[in-house]
Amino acid sequence: MIHLGEYNTLEIFREAEQGVYLADEAGNEVLLPNRYVPEAYKIWDKLEVFVYLDNEERPVATTEKPYITRDDFALLRCNEVTSFGAFLDWGLVKELFCPFKEQVFKMKPGGWYLVHCYLDEKTGRLVASSKTNRFLDNKNLSIKQFDQVELIASHPSEMGWNVIVNKKHHGLIYKDNLFEDISVGDKMEGIVKKIRPGNKLDIVLGQLGYRSIEPNADRIMQELKVHSGFINLNDKSDPEDIKNMLQMSKKNFKKAVGALYKKRLIEIKPEGIYLA
Predict the structure, then answer these.
(1) H-run or E-run covering 239
(2) Are 58 and 33 in contact (CB under 8 A)?
(3) Mean pLDDT in residue range 104-133
(4) Which of 64, 102, 166, 206 has the fewest CB atoms in 10 Å of its CB?
(5) Residue 260 sits in which domain range?
(6) Structure pTM?
């Protein structure tokens, strides 16, 4: 079966004036227009292509890579708004349609919006929605505490940043655990710090516990080298000063400093830390 909105590995089956037809194992065909046909090819060669609907609502293949695929999330630019809805640039000839009913706020040309791409069962078309929360579900979690997860920044709140976790769940990074600037659509890695009642996910960036010592220690060593072997931070420094210089919490800073001190790579003095 050829899957709309996804990458498919298909065989070159036959030639035509407008391009070549690709087929799956069941004999289902889709056109690869001339502009995407390789200069050198043979019948039965396999190609990885993305399949979507052209302007006449017919399945068509392309070797171009869209910015978003079916059931995924991405930050896309709005190119045009008509009486039907918004049209988003997703890297392909035909733009991705976002109906007004799927817009949290009315989209404007030139604006950037975090959207989810899905197959509309009624129309059979790929469409976008900026109502991303409705595609997330925390009832049945596929992750557990301390798992490393992939994150997409969704939107800020008074408590911190809402994030999409593994493209399936909703999570929150509390302000106290934010040590770098985040923007909507940013892709990051994090750890499930805690699962609260109701399957609410507390997320932190980076790694927890002993797993965070090595990369944080690395960062301190880099800062020391950049600043000629000295940084004016120690265990009595203000947490904000540590955050501004190293983008880490004071707790993680102290763990990393302890690890470096045990290895005799640094010297700790009242005025700060020196390379040994």
Answers:
(1) helix 239-246
(2) no
(3) 96
(4) 64
(5) 210-275
(6) 0.77
